Amino acid sequence: MARNPVTWLGSPTFPKAARAALQDTQLRQNLRKATGTIRGRRAAAVAEMTDWEQLRVAGEQIKDDVLARLDTLLLQLEESVTARGGVVHWARDAAEANRIVLDLCRAEDAREVVKVKSMATAEIGLNEALEAGGVHAIETDLAELIVQLGDDRPSHILVPAIHRNRSEIREIFQRRMGVEVSDEPADLAEAARVYLREKFLTTKVAISGANFAVADTGSIVVLESEGNGRMCLTLPETLITVMGIEKLVPTWQDLEVFLQLLPRSSTAERMNPYTSVWTGVTPGDGPQEFHLVLIDNGRTATLEDSVGRQALRCIRCSACLNVCPVYERTGGQSYGSVYPGPIGAILTPQLVGDMHDPQAASLPYASSLCGACFEVCPVRIDIPSVLTHLRAEAVEAKGRTAESVAMAAAAWIFGAASRYEKAQKAGSLARFLARDGRITSLPWPGSKWTSSRDVPAPPAESFRTWWRKNRG
Amino acid sequence: MRVKVALFATCLTDTFFPSTARAVVRLLERLGCSVEFPLDQTCCGQMHFNTGYREHAKPLARKYTDVFGGYDHVVAPSGSCAGMVREIHPTLGEAPPRTFELAEFLVDVLGVTDVGAWFPHRVTYHPTCHSLRMLGVGDKPLALLRAVKGLDLVELPDATQCCGFGGTFAVKNAETSTAMLADKMRCVLDTGAEVLSAGDNSCLMHIGGGLSRLRAGVRPVHLAEILASTEEDPWRATP
Fold this sequence. Notes:
The complex is a heterodimer of chains A (about 475) and B (about 240).
Chain A: H1 14-22, H2 25-47, H3 52-68, H4 70-83, E1 87-91, H5 94-107, E2 112-115, H6 119-123, H7 126-132, E3 136-139, H8 142-149, H9 166-177, H10 185-202, E4 205-208, E5 212-214, E6 219-224, H11 228-234, E7 238-244, E8 248-249, H12 255-266, E9 274-279, E10 289-295, H13 299-303, H14 319-323, H15 325-330, H16 341-352, H17 358-362, H18 372-376, H19 383-398, H20 402-414, H21 417-428, E11 438-439, H22 447-450, E12 455-456, H23 463-470
Helix pairs in contact in A: 3-12, 9-10, 16-19
Chain B: E1 4-7, H1 11-16, H2 18-30, E2 34-36, H3 46-51, H4 54-68, E3 73-76, H5 79-88, E4 99-101, H6 102-109, E5 122-125, H7 129-134, H8 140-146, E6 152-154, H9 169-172, H10 174-191, E7 195-198, H11 201-213, E8 219-222, H12 223-228
Parallel strand pairs in B: 1-2, 1-3, 3-4, 5-6, 5-7, 7-8
Helix pairs in contact in B: 10-11
């Protein structure tokens, strides 16, 4: 099976990448500030809603229904889009999708295309594929533009440049746009606006992703905050939308649920500033050619897993990233994929579909299982449960290791109280390693603990020994 | 009628923190329960399950049901082990007996918040992730602490953020775990408390291990030990 290029080529395993990221004090500072702020705002936006829990359940149920009927709903979508003058393309994987989009650009003779922020196109590496084919893609979302101009990688689903502060952004803009600009947010935004405005007006082809596609009407929905999306979706002559096959909702009315869940979860807004909806082609209004590219890229395989498939409910709000204590410290690039944070830890390995890949297999372990992600997820993805489920797959793929032998031994010891007690007594001898009641250094793998934490000296008498003496 | 309780000490507390289990016995007996400690108990299988060794966790879950099956109430001084039993054992094909984390047992089953304790120290409380999010223990531990005579309870900033323990996470991702621990310790030290309390010795071992390494002068004490302490028989630092 061809490997899906969801992960960045040559990415180290999570612990290795995280080790490097943790050293970056500027990154730590930027992330602490940004995630802390978004966390607080989201909590306030959600607290306003008396029916939030019902909305979450509704979101979960609608998405589960979509996943259960995906085959028929997709055909319905194709029919609806085609009936309204759009053209639907089906892509099994990233390579197929990229080839379809490149061919469409070439058919229009486009050398440059403008892009609305899209996770699906980032997932398939569309920009790089287009560049290789002689088509330059211009990101028009401010944060995405910062990442692109900085020759950087995104580190957050919603705010891909969250790891940058404003002085770093100023430096990137000055270097790449050739302008003098201050580090005031308004000035930085103005510089981007001037830079982008000309592109909107001169580019004939736009590429977008989709937040939702309505099966029964064929409508595509994009939510955004900056208005760049609205420009891309209305000014060019040709619009190409690339969308994962799971982004469907059955009916127009179902949008009601998600248009409440998504803004509050992602940007902590009651309503996002721009919601663009289009249905096929409208003569004399907006793009006169519309292509919808539906990508699988590992989704059908994910759907086969009864526990793991709930990851496909994801609406890419990034609430789980903002509350994740691991993400807050390591940043998004440590996850080696366009999907970072808790959702990335369960989605990336499933889309990659190969637990023999050490990087993919390391991702489900990038969590302390604290459960903060599940608590905020607007479509109730039980991320901790999927994490442990995928860990079991990783263990199985690895086969016999030092760890698996140790775990088997521990299980055998715990299997009988008599063995457990003997081990306890033997272990209690470690108290002779202690000074002042603490052990400060242990051999590997205990050294991983004692590198930063003491271990209390085991007591001479376990509780069960005491109980037997005093109560037995 | 005296409420009959089986104590599930948990392997960590049994082995490393016997004073906590003794405190649970003392506290529950003081509140009129009769406490039993089935000696066949070992481990709930959480480490195995959470690390991906589901098949090894299964017989341990089975064993738990066998050992505690005859009891109406099982009490554990650990939110995460009680969470493992209540939320995960059923997914391993078990129907476990009713198992409670200590604070929920006191408040929900015995219906007490003032347990007659005395603990004249400045204390801050870390709500552990599994007690908070798996069991929904909420502010029951805080209600119990507020009723303790002499206790000066100070709020922990960013209290609900994980301390970075996470079982094998602490060694598999030791650096990230340490970064989380550093922030937790900063919050603990900011309170000026001399005692850090929690309902899980695993998290306390983690935060306490960091505080000990820094000689920070803050002592981890399990909630059970605070609640067991009285004017007549006050808490003492014992293994």
